[in-house]
Amino acid sequence: MNTSVKNIIAQDKVFSVKEETFTTLALAVFQFQHQFNPVYRQYCDLLKIDPLKIDRIEKIPFLPIRFFKSHHIKTTDFNPVVIFESSGTSQTVNSKHFVKEISLYSRSFNETFRLFYGDPRQWCIIALLPSYLERKNSSLVMMADELIKESGHPKSGFYLNEWSQLDKSLKELESQQQKTILIGVTFALLDFSEQFPQLLKHTTIIETGGMKGRREEITRGQVHEILCQQFGLKKIHSEYGMTELLSQAYSYGEGLFNCPPWMKVLIREEDDPFAIHLPNQDRFIRGAINCIDLANIYSCSFLATEDAGKLYPDGSFELLGRLDNTDIRGCSLLSL
Q1: CA 252 to CA 238: how far, in whole Å?
Q2: What is the tally of structural domains in the chain?
Q3: What does the pLDDT look like over 213-226, one tens digit per residue?
Q4: Angstrom distance (rounded) from CA 209 to CA 78
């Protein structure tokens, strides 16, 4: 691998990117992935993309995220150190993310957590992720596990279905006025809140989404309203991440998410997946969400998700749910 390519993929360059240098780095990563990712290159070729004419990030082709279910999305040839796999049922095909360097993921979620919440050692971190703990290769479990270890608090840890023990731990932490993060999958947080409502003054709840047929589907706003009532909170925080990404966005409440500097959300038109828009300085834009994740150096950094959303002038975004038709046009272009 030549020196210029090594310079493009240097971790320090990715995680120190600024707003004014984001476009330059994203375009360099596009050229790198177009050259060394066979699936992405073939997708671009079928779209008749001339990589030399890609001079703005909204011109970059975004790979439909469902390709992670049917193809090995790898930039350069490597044996993965871990394969993250999405949740699902025995009847579904799960996405697989082949990870070349686990340090990319670790650095991404660590620096993002510090950006939004500060030093993990200031917190007791409790993870309520039963459906994720019950399966292997969950990127969310790996993230929570490392943050729990970095926290170092004796009460930090995972809970499966031990509601009574979790209730006891939270009451002890509240009595000690200990800053606590309870990060949990949606259905488990709702189940716990119904059985053990209580007043939480020193605890921040971060929901990660995920009903997966475990409960009746309700909106994120409804989930937050229930949790606020049950725990006496004004706001519920949220995490936006997925198996196919190595980075996460966070919301402090009100349903508005912000990205770390190396991640950016754009909007594509639902009836034209190749019409892609940056934030409009005058108003919000509504459509389907595209993600740029520069930490996805050895995968694909440019992904067309199956989520609908609003993109605001400051770059923050709101999730509106899943697209009505998640068979994104363009997927049928590639059959290997």
Answers
A1: 7
A2: 2
A3: 555 667 888 999 99
A4: 32
